[in-house]
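[AMINO ACID CHAIN]
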Amino acid sequence: MKVYQIFRTIFVSIAILFFHNSIFSQKYKEMMNDNSFNFYDVVKEAESYFKTIDVTKKGSGYKQFMRWAVGNEYKYYPSGDRLAVDPEFVVKAYKKNLSSKQDQSSTTVLTNGWREIGPFAINNITGHYAAGMGRVEDFYVNPNNKQQIYSCSRSGGLWKTENEGATWYSLSTETLVASGVNSIAVNPSDFNHIYIALQNARNNYSYGIYESSNGGESFTETGFNPTNLGLGGLGSNFKIYTVKHHPTLEDFLVVGTSNGLYITSNNFSSWTKIVDSGQFIQVEFHPTNDAIFYAYNTSQRNLVYVYNSLNNEYSTTTINSNNNNLATIAVTENAPDHVYFASSSGIFKSMNSGSNFSFISNSFNNISNIGTDAFAVSSSNYQNLLIGGVDAANSTNGGLSFTKRTDWYLGSSLHGDGSLEENYFNSTAYVHADLRIAKSIDGFFYVGTDGCLAKSEDGGVTWQNLMQINAPPIRENYKLGISQSHNKVAISGSQDNGTSIKKPSEWVEAYGADGMEGIVLPLNPDYMIGSYQFGGRIRTLNAGTSNTIVTSNGTDGWWEAPLAYDPNDQFKIYDFRNGVYVSTDFGLNYNYVGTPSFLSSNPDNYWWQIRNAEIAQNNSDIIIVSRTSEIEKSTDGGISFTNIRNNLPNHMIQDIAINPNDDNDIIVVNASFTDNSEKVFRSINGGTSWINITHNIGDIPVHTVVIDHTNNPKIYIGTEVGVYYMPLDGNNWVLYSPDLPNVAIEELEINYGANTLKAATWGRGLWEYDLVDRASYPSIESTSITDPVSLNSPLEGSNQFITSEIIYDGNLTDVKVFFDKQSIL
């Protein structure tokens, strides 16, 4: 592997943020946030820019660009037109399905609903150098009782603690039409009266503002919603960045959006748009003058808006700095007329309520990994400042100089010389990477990051993680791998929180970066392979206690590069990237096999790499791969491929499933935002022709599909808004989401022996449920033999005792064990 690729694979995999604006393309960002620009024009502009810089450098923005690109291309493919979408089409289809769904009480299941798997805490850290629970977008600490805190997850809803993070519990946002909460406002006179900005979990577009008067136990939609605004919804690019409640006026709120600045004085019965356009990402009230508030608009990078509600006028103050796209403003009760402005150009301060600003310092730019995404001034000492991007630094002299206080990397000397796990639990300098927001309450600093909510009681010098032991399960999972020999074992990959391994009694945080695809050897639940972005692989033979970085060749794969084991030779591993690579020693060494024809023109461009792959259960020479709308089939183990697209529509394929009982029975799904009747297709002749089986799913984007193994097979699909099933030859999809939060489902897997369906969600971790109509069947929870299967054991001829744990309410009268499909006991 080239040195460049090693650095790219490892260092680009670390959580980074756009904090060095001097090296970030403003034109590209503006195009990305403006839906009038075609998706592929944005990609072209961004790729041209990134060719001119070192994308391995922290702060390059490349990783964030890829997250955005991967999370958006499937919606607008092939045209790239981001305007040809009904903003509420998914909500309409979902509500229609809810109103007409079949009575689920007639479905025989083992339990009442989906069961949450977690993770619920950081139990055990082995190779994970930046462990965390999930992304915190906003929070509110009760100034009258700091034990009470609300925390907003970008995609996992609203959470609350009554004991400063010792325990957290989910509020009723999980039953709303979307699952992301990116901003919260609280009535200063009533901690239980709250407002939240609700957003789609997968693309952060707004569903308006919801209100609760009972501390989040129930919510109602305010008048500030997509219907009344004509803006917002899953397909829209309208975003609510911030909601702020007036310090004293009961019904006065300010809303900063991607389409201007709004105020309401009557609790959203009506509102006034006081600035017609712009990206208003932050609003702060003057600490003592209730008539004044400040707002920052990223579209006007060197201006701060100062609004005076007494005369309904606003003014703008120019700040003499450049590259302020990621700037932050701050105020402090300790110096009420001071307003602070932090950007990559430095820190500026106004001493006259924003009339003018003077430069203080840009010394924090000399400290590694310090950006301006999070910025706060102590409410008890205006000389004490906190600033952060990937890491955090504090100042005790008003911003003239800063000292780095946190480090995202658990192996850093800042944490001591202990193990990664010891440093995580014991260090006072560990705060998860990527600070999103910072506040000061009663002189204490609080920050929300991509992995936790943290607090400092000494001005930002030392830190305490408030989401460490009993934490909100808010992982944004990309992929999932499960064990077929132990129902309580799984491996999952999540955004910014790496690869995690579910063991029978605990979780192991195995590796950092953006975790991707994972597999578990069916014959031994300790043998696993995980992934990080662009096809990086980690291999463990002891369930994550230790791991090794391995790769099939020197070429990057797709962002979520596929990985699979041979169903009939489970030590044989297939790695899919610019071709098919095969390992016969469980992923340690690989040989090139072949390449589908759709890669022939750009074999080394990862945008052209294989994106989905599936191997037939009964004949592993049958392999199906896809890239965008192209799909090809091999019948010789990946050596050669034949195009089987035929009459499939021109949509980006999101997943492929092959019937475990029939290798010619294939299903593909897509998540297009531009078509209302072409989401699920089936071929019963190996891909020669395809039948549209979307039926009543309508507009709902579909991300994943599996087929069970029963005599009366069911198809299960994971969508943008839940799980559905249908008999294989049926014509009506049934919602199958009891007790499952309304989150996007990224991947489904079936444990055949336990009759269990598992789901990786975007924002609420892992969940499981029982397969339809399997209540009368035993659940085989685990199976093991005397000598666990490995590359070297058991030896041929050695006797093995087989042990199975079975859960069953009835009496087992005829138990048999099958080997090579022949009864041996």
Observations:
- The helical segments are 3-11, 26-32, 39-50, 62-70, 73-76, 89-100, 226-229, 420-426.
- Confidence is low (pLDDT under 50) at residues 1-25, 100-111, 821-825.
- The first helix runs from residue 3 to 11.
